[in-house]
């Protein structure tokens, strides 16, 4: 189910993919949830039955100053500041009665600086947002007025499938930067693992790039070369009717992108046309090791974004339960 495209004609390839993979109007003109509509109550009940051992895995990177961001488009790592401390309590300067003291803190950060979901207002195609709406009417200086991430806050709990491309296709569990994962390879990995991908599933793709970044340093992890999904997977993403997809890389798709002059062309199809939520910078290593150990690659996932009103993306602490 690979979408065939001409690498020398990105304009035509993007336009054709947009037409072939469009979900505009599928769930009505007012829809704000896109492919999360595939994940219904029945799918959630099925996902709950996947819990056997009760083993729990957090799939979030830590949110701290030792993160991957380098300032591109004003994206920085989180800054954590204490407002009240134990030192203040010991000094008796907090003004509370009867010996009680406390600590309080604040975090300042871009919402997409670490493990997060891209919302449906994050990317436009030719000034059109999800479901064909004019981008300028959707996202204004006040935020996303239509598809803010809060509209999807309850939508990311269900069956998830890990596709460990790093182990299946790479050496020592890692794919090299620039490796484009095809639709056929995604299907082959799922078949080999015995974990078919279907309607309403949340798909997690491990490339091993985060493993490498932890070992060798962040380098250009944020925005530089990376393994990832080929632009040709657009039709697979649409046809499988998955609810969402996340990877352990900065931008989900392969970098450098497969056209000489393009920036994140798969995003340009997936978000505004398919209505697909993309998760980035997820930590899949411990989960992948457990899946390789017990041979089970599907599990219950709860990955609710922080419901920041009007946000076009939001941090998340995804929890996998096996």
From TrEMBL:
Signal peptide feature range: none
InterPro entries reported in the protein's UniProt record: KFase/CYL, KFase_sf
A Pfam family hit: Cyclase
Name of the featured protein: Cyclase family protein
Organism in which the protein naturally occurs: Saccharopolyspora halophila
């Amino acid at each position: 189910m690979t979408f065939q495209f001409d690498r020398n004609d990105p304009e035509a390839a993007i336009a054709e993919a947009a037409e072939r993979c469009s979900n505009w109007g599928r769930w009505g003109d007012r829809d704000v949830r896109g492919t999360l509509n595939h994940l219904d109550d029945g799918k959630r009940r099925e996902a709950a039955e996947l819990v056997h051992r009760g083993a729990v895995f957090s799939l979030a990177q830590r949110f701290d100053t030792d993160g991957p961001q380098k300032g591109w488009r004003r994206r920085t790592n989180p800054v954590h500041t204490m407002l009240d401390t134990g030192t203040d309590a010991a000094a008796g300067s907090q003004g509370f009665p009867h010996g009680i003291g406390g600590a309080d803190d604040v975090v300042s950060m871009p919402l997409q600086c670490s493990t997060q979901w891209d919302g449906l207002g994050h990317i436009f195609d030719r000034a059109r947002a999800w479901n064909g709406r004019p981008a300028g009417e959707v996202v204004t200086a006040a935020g996303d007025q239509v598809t803010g991430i809060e509209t999807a806050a309850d939508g990311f709990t269900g069956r998830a499938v890990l596709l460990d491309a790093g182990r299946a296709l790479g050496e020592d569990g890692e794919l090299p930067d620039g490796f484009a994962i095809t639709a056929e390879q995604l299907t082959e990995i799922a078949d080999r693992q015995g974990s078919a991908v279907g309607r309403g599933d949340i798909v997690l793709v491990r490339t091993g790039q985060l493993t490498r970044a932890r070992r060798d340093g962040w380098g250009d992890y944020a925005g530089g070369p990376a393994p990832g999904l080929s632009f040709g997977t657009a039709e697979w993403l649409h046809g499988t009717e998955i609810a969402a997809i996340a990877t352990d890389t900065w931008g989900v798709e392969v970098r450098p992108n497969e056209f000489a002059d393009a920036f994140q062309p798969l995003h340009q199809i997936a978000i505004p046309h398919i209505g697909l939520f993309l998760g980035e910078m997820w930590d899949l290593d411990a989960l992948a090791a457990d899946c390789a150990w017990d041979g089970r690659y599907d599990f219950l996932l709860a990955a609710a974004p922080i419901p920041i009103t009007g946000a076009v993306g939001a941090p998340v602490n995804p929890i996998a339960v096996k």
